[in-house]
Each structure stands twice: as structure tokens, then as C-alpha cells.
Input
Amino acid sequence: MRGDGRVANAWLALLSRDWLGLPIALLVTAVGVGLVALESTWAVALGWTAVTVGAVLAAGAVRHLVLVAREARARPVPGKLVDVGGHRMHLLAEGDAGDGPTVVWLPGGHGPGEDFRHLHLLAAARTRSVLVDRFGSGWSDVGPFPRTTAAEAEELVAALEAAGERAPYVFVGHSFGGLLVANAARRRPDLVAGLVLLDPTPLEVIAFAPPNRLVAGMRGAFLLTAVRHLFGAHRSRGRGGRTGPYCAAASIFAELSPAGLAGVGWETVVYDGDLGDLPLVLVIPRDLTGGEAVLAAARDTAEAERIARFYLRTRTRYLAASTASRLVHTPAGTGHAFPTEAPGFVVGVVADLVRELRTFSP
Output
């Protein structure tokens, strides 16, 4: 299994190179030319088909490189690129912390820091605020494979130190980003003043929840999108169509499955008491608003009630990680996407914790 994982990650690392489409197209064309040279009827027909496909792939690969270059010119790096293990990681830091902690934001999924730009701008008016692009997202390099939560927790701290940001930090993470910052806090509690976890992913959901087609299909969707972009089947927007972000997401989502979690659970779980008395604010919706996808697995009403109970109870499991935790519910009608639905509320919760930490600092 480990050998299979190494091969898979080698392929992902190769697929993350935006230039890969051209040699693939040339290889297909060369095979076609070789078949035509055989001069048999079937070989000639198949060969010209391959030549045509190769030409189309080459045109798409060139288009992809042009779009990526155009997007890079249109969207220059807004922050600072720092060296982490021989790769460049991007951070955007603004605002003044004064005598308080610096706020560090991590969006959900494997999204770039830019996904939380709206929260960052609101927070930077009050304190020091930092957006981080994990390897394989935003303006950061793709970085090494495999992508894992454990590695990204260590890379996050290393990037902040390399950028010269001043501890202590208040880490704010949403969904999978919440799992990541909780891991960072467990590893380096000396650098962390507090945590705000925005409906963070509990690993029980990965290990024990009923099958969720949305999560199960994500890795395949990322891989398909990477291949599609490699041959120019995209528009120049957002992330410029680079294949790296999709390959990185496909890599880290491999661990977010029952089988994947079995191999990394000890390094990834943040369990009861792991965070000592670290101030922790858990922010969750009161109900499963927008959670139709998880309820779709139910075979009847009784099972739907059990699934709902499971998800609502696991949402609170991070409260046991610290003896100084508290629960805050999101505004009525908001669901898992509340950082987008209620940004002022989120920034207010973070500001309250920052204010408390300033008050009680020695």
C-alpha cells in the first residue's frame, strides 16, 4: 500500500506541472505518425486519428500555458513569498497587532487564503491579520507531495516564522482549515494565544459517518479538473487554471477517507485534553441548515434522525480538546458556509477573543 501511495503521489507531482500537456500531446502525435508509417489500412486510420488528437491536445496545452501566464501578469503576488523547505509559500499580512495577538486565517477545503480576503480586510482594520496560501494553493508553490494535514500544520508555523510575524497567534480555521489549525496549536502551543474553530471537521465524520457522495467524489473531481485544465479546457480566472491546486487537494483528500485516516489518525487527531487550557472558541450552526447532502444517505426517517444527531453531536467534539473552551452558535438560518454568509459575525467573534487576550495578558 505504501508503494502504491508513493506512485500515486509521484503522478500527482508530475500532473501538477503546467507544462506536462505538451510532451503528452507530442507523444500521442509521435505514436500516430508511427502507426501511419506501418501503411496497413487499420494502422493508417488509427494513426491519423492519433495525430489529430495529438494536435488538439497540443493546442489545448499551449492555450493552458498562455492563460496561466496571462493570469500571473494580471494578478501579481500581493504579499510576501517565504522559503519553507526549499519551496515558496505566500503570506499576506496587514494591520497592527499592538499589544495583542496576530490573527491567522485558514479557509476550508484546500482553498487559498484569498477565500477569506473579506474577513481579513475587516480584521486588519482592528489588529494584525494574516492570510496564508498553503502549498498548492493561491500564489504558493505546489510544494512536496504527499500533502497531509500534519505536514501543513508544521509548514504553517514555519511560514509565519520565516515571514517574521510575531507570536502569539490566534488561529482561525474553517472546516478542514479548522482541523489544520487545531493540529498546529497542538504541536506548538507556545506560539498560540487562542483558537477560533469555525465548524471544524471532526475526524469522526471521516471515520464513522455514513457514505457521503459529495466528499467521496471530491478527489476524483479534483483529478479530472487538473487533467481538463492541463489541456486548456478552462477559463483564465481565479487561480489561473493551474493544475497544482487541484493536485494538492487530491493529495490531501486521500487522507480524508476511512482508509486514509487509518494511516494518519494518530498524527492528525486532536483529542480530548490535547490543547490543555488554551482559549478555544467553537463556532457552529445550531442545526443542519444546508446539510441535505449528508441526509441523502438515509434510508428512512429513523436513520435520517440518527444521521442528524451524529453530525450535530460531532460538531461539538472539539470542546473537549481544551478546558478553556466555549461554544458560540452562528446566526439563525446560516449553515456550514457561515463565514461567507455572516462575515461581520465571524470577525466580531474573533475580535472578542483578541480583546479578551489583550485584557488578560501580563
